[in-house]
Amino acid sequence: MRLVSDMKREKLLYLMLLPGLLFFVLFKYLPMLGVVIAFQDYQPFAGILHSPWVGLKHFHRFFMDPDFWMLFKNTLLLAVYNLLFFFPLPIILALMLNEVRKHFFKRFVQTIIYIPHFISWVVVAGLTYTMLTTEGGIVNEALASLGADKVNFLLSTDWFRTLITSQAIWKETGWGTIIFLAALAGVDQQLYEAARMDGASRWQQLWSVTFPAIRTTIVLLLILRLGSFLDTGFEQIFLMLNSGNRDVGEVFDTYVYTTGLQNAQFSYSTAVGVFKSVVSLILVISANGLAKRFGEEGVY
Amino acid sequence: METRKKRNVRRKGMAAGVATVLAVSLLTACGANSNDGGEASGSSSSSSGGKAAQPVKFSAMVPFFAAQPPATDDSNPAFKALEDKTGVKLDVTFVPGSAYDDKVNVTLASGNLPQAIVVTNNKNSSVINAIRSGAFWEVGPYIKDFPNLQKYWNDQIATNISVDGKIYGIYRERPVARKGFLFRQDWLDNLGLQQPKTVDDIYNIAKAFTTDDPDKNGKNDTFGLALSSDGLASDTMIDLVTALGSFNKWGIQDGKATPDFMTPEYMEALKLLKKMYDEKLINQDFGAIKGTKVRDFINQGKAGMVTGSIDDANSQFTSLYKLIPDAKIGFVAGLEGPKGVKLPANSGYYGEFMFPKSSVKSEADLKNILSYFDKVLDPEVEKLFDFGVEGVHSKVENGNPVITNQELFANQVADLGQLRIAPSDLTWPTENDVMKKVKQMYKEQAPNAVPNVTEPFLSPTQAERGTDLDTIINDASIKFIMGSIDEAGFAKATEEWRKQGGDKMIDEFTQEYNKAQNK
Amino acid sequence: MRERTLGSKVFDTANHIVLLIVGIVTVLPFLYVISGSLVSSEELLTKKIVLFPTHISWDAYRYIFATKVIYSSLLNSIFITVVGTLINLLLTTLMAYPLAKRTLRGRNKLMLLIVFTMLFNGGMIPTYLVVKSMGLLDTYWSLWLPSAISAFNLILLRNFFQQLPESLEESAKIDGCNELGILYKIVVPLSLPAMATFALFYAVYYWNSYFTAVLYINKSNLWPIQVWLQQIVLLSAGGFTDANALSEVVVPPESIKYAVIVVAAIPVLLLYPFLQKHFAKGVLLGSVKG
């Protein structure tokens, strides 16, 4: 009974939800039925109805692949690198920008740091090659002129993760600040006034006013990041991958591309995708639970 | 209030209805026996043989590679001429080359197929499966009914596109003898050297290009052979291995299908490249270079040799000529070895036109469409593809056509070539010397081209993990050349290849080969 | 101005210097891209890094704009981006608002279901079949509807809405506003920084997307500019390395790759300053409260 009366009171709210729900049902959940092909030998022409069911065959093949653990380790390490070294940077940068009082300078920096986001990975990879190659790359030329040995950055297993993470930092940090700057823009100026009245220093203001204002956004983004934890960015890695660094560079995404998609093995690719999704689901649920235990709101 | 609620409920009901319909259509999206899928965007050519007056209409899907596809309406005189000369109304969908394979797959899945479709990945499992479920017309038996097609037909290439011994499409022919070495002819001349004829020549020239200052600038700033990580497998290695007398990827040894890297010649070629790498005759970073970037070394005037298609000489080195106006590029296809002059053969085609049964409903319709492909082989139509419309794209000079408006030609005519099946190997007296020589070499070297014997065969293992397996060998080859593994290490990689599916592939190919031999 | 302590001054100076360095590091490669688009390919080939071209050549841009379709496809792109962004903002806002209500029943379950769509997806073929069976092929709806709401943006926007003080809405309710009115008159104006952010995210998404256009739209006169730009980049990067492909394909010089980036990035870069003014601090919040 109470439900009915609640519904009545909130019917406008539900009505507002309706278009969005329709969207999720039609364009997300309906196609999601397609994941059943992970349990089939799906052929586009035959369609789902006429493709044979093969149970866990593709999962079996994936987990039994001699490279499975290498792929898992490589993906995980790159993801951890990304989380440790990339994730905090947009936050720090946004906080720094927020402290700038000169409007012109602030806008200027803000506008230029997000440009790299628009430079495609193909070009980033090309630039990386131009700078780091042993055949006249400027970094190696500099090393040579200092009398040091040339370093084969591009073909080395030692440098691969550093390279990938640095590229990501260069390209996406500025872009990543935007969401935090928006959150910071909502901070009530009176709170700063009050803090200053209490004699709070800049650092104290930062910790007691600014940071709390973006804390929930940070937590949210962290949880969502875990939702795509094993997505390592296919294009970037694929472009940097070569026979020298494959032992540390081959990840799930590149593997799916070369073994699955290039050969039109939709079922196998989907099975690998399902595995990644399940891992993400576990991570998101855990992170959300953890966030709630610490008094955060979480995603759901 | 009340009505609003009702409406709300009704809308929800409708949504659910739509969802169900969609779910059903998703599940039954097409299937071999769906009849309704055929209505490709153009009208079908259901008007069959009897009424000859009516032009045949059909829809086609093809990739394009230029910056933009040619217009397919009356605004494009070349397209109009094509329709007039072939007596066909064409409804063409041009798809960017980069997304073409994806587009073919979704089109296959949707069941909404055009009446003629170019399939470039004709050996991948989704296409094979569609063929085996009866999705496409078998065209093999019809070829003899069309005089031009019959003349065009090459049994070797036809075998290469066959599936289970039957022909399901019309291949788009490409030169078989096309791979070779391209080099700085002016450097050879400076050093008083001859064009390479043997594998040893390759080494000697590379050495001279590196150490003897071929550009005469007094600086030690050149090297012999530009190499890339993917070009190693697709060109350089098979060029050398076939010249040394072994297989082009796969051959038959003691009645069994055998990959080239299990033959001693492969190791011989690897050792040669390693020696060249150690002596710095090869760019030291080749493992990190993919695709056409390797040609930059030539264009920069740093490297003297590269492997590739000999016709690259015509189109890929324009920057070099601007930078060094005296530069000249020479080329050879095929090197002399223990078994005579040999070079690796290409498959001989780039994609094939296939004709779905769901959209080409009757035999008469199929014949109508095939007659288009018969007509595009007419010299008149060939000339149209090569030179566009006289007075618009080209003019006649001393009885020979010459292109007058390059830009218009590129926009309106160039990619119409996707709708033809023969390569432009007609030689015109007005063509430049490089292309004349290239085309002559295509013809001369064709008998020396070593085919990959597994080209016509299907191996489920190759379809499933072929790319993975290739990577094992390619990585090991690169590491061997760079010195991070030795011969034992390479043997270990071979062992790995066999364990991970190579042995199965050998068995499957051997079986297919025996089947084909017993026929 | 209030007097500033020495510590505060040191803090500011250090902050400025670091930001300046960050700015230079990000902008230098872009300068390289711009210069790369303005020099001849020969100069690009011989010199490793060109930051200030000695001899400016507009050939690359001439090549791009010689492709006639570029102009009409630019209009297509603008249309797709503007309408798409509006649709997305509308639908996302409409959905985020109720979900921000802590009292809404079933809210968490819905949120979980939405998060779920971020983790699992059916892939290219099932989505294509849905789009096709709804009759959206060859229309711009096929670009807009399947990506009308990004779950990621929805969750973040809901978070912004959630942080607005509830007292504001209560007072509006007393004034006789219904939920739609509150959303339109109070919540949206108070969330302008967030709205500007998501407008930017959506606009950039639409501006950059080309694969869906190629997949869902057969008529090349409807394609957005990115299709052509991608085609040109792939040509110059040697994307078609199939040795069997037609050799007549002319590979555009290296500098075109860079010109394409400039052409593709500039419209979005122009958009930013307009949105940026909404990031100004503490927009209306103080005044409304006061």
UniProtKB/TrEMBL annotation, chain B:
Highest taxon of the lineage: Bacteria
Keyword Lipoprotein found: yes
Signal sequence interval, chain numbering: 1-34
InterPro entries tied to this protein: Bact_solute-bd_prot1, SBP
Keyword field: Cell membrane, Lipoprotein, Membrane, Palmitate, Signal
Name of the protein: Extracellular solute-binding protein
Organism in which the protein naturally occurs: Cohnella zeiphila
Lineage: Bacteria, Bacillati, Bacillota, Bacilli, Bacillales
UniProtKB/TrEMBL annotation, chain C:
Recorded topology in the membrane: Multi-pass membrane protein
UniProt keyword terms in alphabetical order: Cell membrane, Membrane, Transmembrane, Transmembrane helix, Transport
Pfam families: BPD_transp_1
Protein name, entry field: Carbohydrate ABC transporter permease
GO biological process, one term: transmembrane transport
Record-annotated membrane-spanning stretches: 12-34, 78-98, 110-131, 143-161, 182-207, 258-275
Subcellular location: Cell membrane
Residue stretches making up the ABC transmembrane type-1 domain: 74-275
Family of the protein in this entry: Belongs to the binding-protein-dependent transport system permease family.
GO annotation, cellular component aspect: plasma membrane
Organism of this sequence: Cohnella zeiphila
